[in-house]
Amino acid sequence: MARTPHKKTARRRWSANVVLTLGLVVLAVVVIGGILVFDRSDDGPAASGETLVPAVAHRLSTAEGDRVTLVEFLDFQCPACASYYANVTRKLEQDYQGRITFVPRNFPLDMHPLAMPAARAAEAAGKQGKYAAMYHALYDGFSEWAVAGQDVNSDVTAAIAKFEQYATTIGLDLARFRADMTSAEVQAVIDEGVRDGRELQVTSTPTFFLNGEKFEPTGQSFGDVDRELRAKIDEALAG
């Protein structure tokens, strides 16, 4: 699936200015380095609906009968996921609202120390019916909490303070939000996402499945990938 190779990401330093222009920088890496931002691992097994979209999964868009379902395994602190959000999925979510079922699943990577707290923040917001609002706040505010100067941020206390700020802005009960963030129930939902992802041979983020089939783009830019994904979605909608 399309993604930035994480071994290279771990060796790079992401400045605040880079993060603010994630899409342009990733595209520059593709052109200058002669590499694609996607890891072309072998296709995983066909995914069952229950594995991809369990009852606890949140939806950014819902279509009647879930006839066309797009699932994204993501890591909120992953630069590639943030770039996809900025260049592909945010607009796709808007353009296909109500026409497809769009399901984000948690797959926090160990290399990102704030990925798990961010996933807990999103799931805790979901307990109050505000998952989508927190999902957008986390990605729209990526440069505020995910990076620190030229480094990947590892300050959990500062990140949680920022998440609580987002929680207040979107109208959550802050005391409940704090309790849910540390609850076993929220952690179990995240763990289920990781477990399902591994069963489907997800190894990096973002990884997409469209109607159970792993999406493997061939494009050399986000514009190419966006067109490929939309073409597949349109074909599924027409079928």
UniProtKB/TrEMBL annotation:
Residues 41-238 form the Thioredoxin domain. InterPro entries: Thioredoxin-like_fold, Thioredoxin-like_sf, Thioredoxin_domain. The chain crosses the membrane at residues 16-38. Keywords: Disulfide bond, Membrane, Oxidoreductase, Redox-active center, Signal, Transmembrane, Transmembrane helix. Belongs to the thioredoxin family. DsbA subfamily. This is Disulfide bond formation protein DsbA. It comes from Kibdelosporangium persicum.
